[in-house]
Automatic annotation (TrEMBL):
UniProtKB keywords: Coiled coil, DNA-binding, Repressor, Transcription, Transcription regulation
Coiled coil: 76-103
The UniProt record lists the keyword Signal: no
Database matches in InterPro entries: DNA-bd_dom_put_sf (IPR009061), MerR-type_HTH_dom (IPR000551), MerR_fam (IPR047057), TipA-like_antibiotic-bd (IPR036244), TipAS_dom (IPR012925)
UniProt protein name: MerR family transcriptional regulator
HTH merR-type domain ranges (all copies): 1-71
């Protein structure tokens, strides 16, 4: 099939003048020019125009687009690359939509609009640590999971986390041993809590990586002052570390 320049311009939402300009700068030539001077475009030309319009929408200038198209050997590879780019853009927009919906929910609920607290991804404050220890995918999957929750679900999750921390602090202040049944029960609860977070080894059932993760978390609780504050003091953080690492050695 072929389309005239007017038909293609109308379908693409651009002007025939734009198509003639693309021809002049070497981006998109017509498939053929009829004896009457009319320009015709076949399916291959339309596919090329689709790619040009996609790159324009991504903010690329015409010289940059020309360079990309000139370097490509296989059109299908180029289309696959565009699919990947579009999927990433779709995911970014989806995250923005979820954030805006959360903001609206918070405002309608009459909450103080501190979106930095309510909308932060589960691991946002510890992004670098998560990526360095467990990779980009672990961060992205868990972060998307958090942003996919409703405001009520986020509140419930945070409350469960606060309850767990409070239980750790209470046990540490009571002076129980990290290897005691009480401490080991808390360690099991802590690991069940971790297993609810997509992207973590515990959620994916990877035993060896789960053991490594639990031990690494224990070390991070002690090494990072933010966690010492969370568990009341450095001694509390050390108690959590020792209990988790004992559990990882003997019960995982």
């Amino acid at each position: 099939m072929e389309w005239t320049i007017q038909e293609l311009a109308t379908r693409a939402g651009i002007t025939s003048r734009t198509l003639r300009h693309y021809d002049r700068v070497g981006l998109l030539a017509p498939s053929r020019v009829g004896a009457n001077g009319y320009r015709y475009y076949d399916a291959g030309a339309v596919a090329r125009l689709q790619r040009i319009l996609l790159m324009r929408r991504l903010g690329m200038g015409l010289p940059a687009i020309a360079a990309v198209l000139a370097e490509e050997v296989d059109t299908c590879d180029g289309l696959r690359a565009h699919i990947t780019t579009l999927e990433e853009e779709r995911d970014r927009i989806d995250r923005q939509l979820r954030s805006v919906r959360h903001t609206l929910d918070a405002l309608q609920a009459g909450m103080e609009p501190r979106m930095d607290v309510m909308l932060a991804g589960f691991n946002d404050h510890y992004k670098d640590e998560v990526i360095s220890r467990w990779g980009e995918r672990a961060f992205q999957v868990s972060n998307d999971w958090w942003h996919g929750k409703t405001l009520d679900q986020q509140r419930a999750w945070k409350q469960a986390a606060e309850d767990l921390v409070a239980a750790w602090v209470e046990a540490a202040k009571a002076g129980v041993s990290p290897t005691s049944e009480q401490a080991q029960s808390l360690a099991a609860r802590h690991i069940r809590w971790l297993s609810q977070i997509p992207g973590t080894p515990t959620a994916e059932g990877d035993r060896e990586c789960s053991i490594e993760m639990v031990k690494g978390l224990g070390d991070m609780y002690v090494d990072d002052p933010r966690f010492a504050d969370m568990y009341d003091d450095a001694a509390g953080a050390a108690f959590v570390r020792d209990a988790l690492q004992a559990y990882a050695r003997t019960r995982m």
